[in-house]
Structures are given as structure tokens and as C-alpha cells.
Design goal:
Residues 9-137 form the DinB-like domain. The protein is an alpha+beta fold. It is 33% helix and 13% strand. It folds into two domains: 3-148; 172-377, paralog of FGE (formylglycine-generating enzyme), CATH 3.90.1580. It has helices at 3-18, 37-56, 67-71, 95-113, 119-148, 214-222, 234-243, 280-289, 297-303, and strands spanning 172-175, 178-182, 198-202, 205-208, 251-254, 257-262, 265-268, 313-319, 345-349, 365-367, 376-377. It has a four-stranded mixed sheet with strand order 10-9-8-11. The chain has a three-stranded antiparallel sheet with strand order 5-6-7, with no helix packed on it.
């Protein structure tokens, strides 16, 4: 596949994710962590315009000077921006204009990619591909949150599956104690937070071949897991009590039966599916209730070649920190990962919202411990 073909394929998929939406759905921002779908479409376009076309394409004319303020996410180096909580207040630019913006930038990019590219531009281009794929995952989960918090529980796509058909046989994988290599080691793309490859010592452990299911998590609920402080971190217990948490996100107890909102609408909880949309706090409490623990990110990376993964982002016990020898790139690109290495937990794997070819064993996702709107799950260690 040529660079032009890959560019257009990725760009088209973002718009395909939005095809089932009505115009009003594009604008909603129910909470700070969820961005309006039209903002994602504009921001990913702004990324290519700002970091490739403006500095490297001669005679390129910016589509709209105000868009740098509207669609800059967190790049202090690039200038002022609309604060994250106000993205839902942007009734303008309208959805049609944002699609026109995408078409304008896409045409300029296709013309630009017809030229010979130096290594710097190629690296930025591949980063742009992966950046848009990250937003495709966020786009789908943000859409689910927007629709899932509508009291009508609208269907995104009928029969949309939220589990894959790949299942492990139950059991445990024994990993012996020893020194292991961690981090990306290859010639393809990786994010800077996957570097540098380094050694860690692990004690022996056993890790589950399967993710915790909805049926297993229901046992925790029925056993009073959300009412017993002994299983929780102090901060997690405060979160439970302050927010009246009693089940995973999107679960609803109706006439004595559990339902959950899915992309296919409100359905009975699938007892065999992996539990999803839970926080690190809940994952830790469940593991504590079982007398086990969550894997560290290093446990997970060493063991992952022995089990199927990719249905759920899996919480780990690891704080999101830099690897030995990590260094930030100069300029705005250096803001991509390093400045978020505080107060967050690492998640490993991928989820059903992750685009194809956008996951690998060394990929490090990261979120604050209370967040649940992604497809997050639990794998136990003993």
C-alpha cells in the first residue's frame, strides 16, 4: 500500500465511524473526557495541516486561521486553544464545514504526497496516521458515551458486536522468575513511550488466560463488593461513595434483571462476555476480593504472547512512567506523551474499538484510575 492509499484509507475510516450519526450527535459533550465527534474530525485534520502542510508544503494556504485555536488539543508550543471543557459549546464551525475542511486538507495532502519525502516528513506522516487511529478509538467510545447517556438509549448500529469470537480456554499461564526484555524493539512505528528497550526482573507468577466475565463480576456485586471498604483503596472507596457507584458503566438493573447499553442498543447483560467499562479502582477491588492482583505492565508484556488479547484494554498495576533513557522530542511533538506521565495507570492490549493494525504487545495506553468510558477489562494474576 502506498502512503497516499494508507492516508486516504485511514481518513475515510474516521468518517465511516460517524456515518450512523445524526447531525445533533456531532456536537454533544456530556463530560470533560468525551469530545464531540465533529471536534475529533476537525482535530485530526488540523494535525496534518499544522505539522505537515504548513511547514513543508510550499504555497499552502491555511483553510481558516481560527481553526488553530478551535482544534489544537494540548500543544502549548502551537498556541492558545479552546479549553477541553468548552469543546461542546462550539456550535460553529458546523458539521458540513468540518467535512469541507477535511476534503480541503485531504486534497492538499494527496498533492503533497506525490512529491519525494524526506525522513522527517515520513516520520511525521506515520505519526499522523497513528494519531488519527488513536482518535478513531476515542471517537467510537465517545459516541457510545453520548448515545448511552441519552435516556432513549438510541442504537448506533443494529447488531454491532462488542466482543470478538476469539476466546481462550480457561486456565493459567506460569511465568518463571527471571530477567526479561521490555519495550519496543523493531523497525516499524512505535510511540516514544514504548522506548527504550530495557531489562526488568520479575518474580514467578501465574496469569489468567481469560478476561474476567460479566458473570464473574456479577458474583462480586452480589457478594456486596461495592459495599465493603476492605477491597478498595482509600481513594477508590471515596470515589465509590461520592459517585454512588454500584455496577460497571452502562449497566442498569430493571425489574430484577441486569441490562447494559451497547452500540446495538440496550440489551440483557451477556454473561459470557468480558466485563467492560470499569475503572482501575473497580479492577483492583475485584482482584482483592478474589485474593489475587492485577498484572504489572511488565507481567502483561512478558505473558501476552501466550494468550489472546485485544477485546478489552486491560488495567495494570503499573503507574504510567518513563522508561530508562526516555527523552522527549523537541517542539510540539515532544508534548505527545511525556507530559502525561503523572497520576495515571497503564493499560495494555487493545479493544474492539481499536482500529486494525494499531496495537502491539509493547503499546502503552494510559488513563486516570477513575475513568470507565473506554472498553476496559480485568485479567488476574496469582
Amino acid at each position: 500500500m502506498t502512503l497516499v492509499e494508507e492516508y486516504l484509507q485511514i481518513r475515510k475510516y474516521s468518517e465511516q465511524v460517524c456515518e450512523p450519526l445524526q447531525t445533533e450527535d456531532y456536537v454533544v459533550q456530556p463530560v470533560v473526557d468525551v469530545s464531540p465527534p465533529k471536534w475529533h474530525l476537525g482535530h485530526t485534520t488540523w494535525f496534518f495541516e499544522t505539522f505537515i502542510l504548513k511547514p513543508f508544503s510550499s504555497n499552502y494556504q491555511v483553510y481558516n486561521d481560527d481553526y488553530n485555536f478551535v482544534f489544537n488539543s494540548y500543544y502549548e508550543t502551537v498556541g492558545n486553544r479552546v479549553i477541553r471543557t468548552d469543546r461542546g459549546n462550539l456550535s460553529r464551525p458546523g458539521v458540513n464545514e468540518i467535512y469541507q475542511y477535511r476534503a480541503y486538507v485531504d486534497e492538499a495532502m494527496v498533492n503533497f504526497l506525490a512529491n519525494a519525502l524526506n525522513d522527517e516528513v515520513r516520520e511525521l506522516l506515520v505519526l499522523g496516521f497513528n494519531h488519527e487511529q488513536q482518535h478513531q478509538e476515542l471517537l467510537l467510545t465517545d459516541i457510545k458515551y453520548i448515545l448511552g447517556n441519552n435516556p432513549l438509549f438510541p442504537v448506533y448500529v443494529k447488531d454491532k458486536k462488542e466482543v470478538s469470537v476469539i476466546q481462550n480456554e480457561p486456565g493459567w499461564i506460569d511465568i518463571p522468575a527471571g530477567v526479561y526484555e521490555i519495550g519496543y524493539d523493531g523497525t516499524g512505528f512505535s510511540f516514544d513511550n514504548e522506548l527504550n528497550r530495557h531489562q526488568v526482573y520479575l518474580h514467578d507468577f501465574a496469569i489468567s488466560k481469560t478476561l474476567v466475565t460479566n458473570a464473574e463480576f456479577l458474583e462480586f456485586i452480589h457478594a456486596g463488593g461495592y459495599e465493603n471498604f476492605n477491597y478498595w483503596h482509600s481513594e477508590g472507596w471515596d470515589w465509590v461513595k461520592s459517585n454512588h457507584i454500584a455496577s460497571p458503566m452502562y449497566w442498569h438493573l430493571m425489574d430484577g434483571e441486569w441490562f447494559n447499553y451497547t452500540l446495538g442498543g440496550l440489551l440483557p447483560v451477556d454473561l459470557n462476555a468480558p466485563v467492560s467499562h470499569i475503572s482501575y479502582y473497580e479492577s483492583y477491588a475485584y482482584a482483592s476480593w478474589k485474593g489475587m492482583r492485577l498484572p504489572t505492565e511488565f507481567d502483561w508484556e512478558v505473558a501476552a504472547k501466550h494468550f489472546n488479547w485485544g477485546e478489552r484494554w486491560e488495567w495494570t498495576e503499573s503507574a504510567y512512567l518513563a522508561y530508562p533513557g526516555f527523552s522527549k522530542a523537541p517542539g510540539a511533538i515532544g508534548e505527545y506523551n511525556g507530559k502525561f506521565m503523572v497520576n495515571q495507570k497503564v493499560l495494555r492490549g487493545a479493544s474492539i474499538a481499536t482500529p486494525q493494525n494499531h496495537s502491539r504487545i509493547t503499546y502503552r495506553n494510559f488513563f486516570h484510575p477513575h475513568l470507565r468510558w473506554q472498553y476496559t477489562g480485568i485479567r488476574l494474576v496469582k
